[in-house]
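subagent[fold] <- orchestrator: predict structure for attached chain, return tokens only, no commentary.
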Amino acid sequence: MNRFLDIYQFTHFRKFLEEYQAVRVKAEPSFTRTEICNLLGLEKSRSYFADVLRGKKVSPRMAQKFIEILELDKKEAKYFETLVEFDQAKSDSARQTAMQEILKQHPNPQHIVNEDAYEYYSHWYNSALFAILDAMDVDDDMTPVQKRIFPKVPLGKLKESLSLLERLGLIRKNEAGFWKPTQESISSGPYNNAELIKQYQLQCFELSKQALMTPPKRPTVMSTLTFSISSEAYKKLEEELQEFKKKARQIIAGDKEKADGVYQMNIHLFSNLE
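subagent[fold] -> orchestrator:
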């Protein structure tokens, strides 16, 4: 283990760099941010380290220089490189691949996320199937689900999803031989890993895009609103959204009629200014 800071406590390399410098400078007062730039061979660019902490891209060559300065061993160096790949991935698939590598390389991946939970949130159709089983009577034959689910999912993937839901204890067969949920809804709960949930949400956003581009067979509501408000008004709006989510959960939980549809609801509220 590194003598200054355990890199395996982190899944964000920039956060690791920031805290590593803060810890090491206490033991070595000369290990300032300016000195790090000097050690990186950037005597004329004293803001480089601060820029990296703020999001500046790190090239493979500079990543190797960081590894030398941080005094990382071979395994720690590989983990650091993977963290950099994860942070700078240009596509969702590349980011997901990097996360899988992080889990493989971490000495105790349960500290990041339970393996089954990671598998559950890695594919949007796991949560969709969970809801579908409440709306449809389904046995071991996933063909009826495969014919109706949107977007389409290969039959083999649905079978794997069914096995996962059973393994997690989220579904069981009723007396009629149909798979049914063992609970009304699922929360990220103890698996509330920020990156994991972010990947799941990205998939859900892609579903919204496909729903917008595909003529719907069932009612859909697509609405967009762009506005300028004060920070105080923003706080009030955020509070109202939380109240709406709470009320939505109450409506869903209080629905006593048999479910005849499965719906996806995404709420986006973000700033167009940095």
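orchestrator: received. Logging for downstream: The CA atoms of residues 30 and 240 lie 50 Å apart. DSSP finds twelve helices and two strands in the chain.
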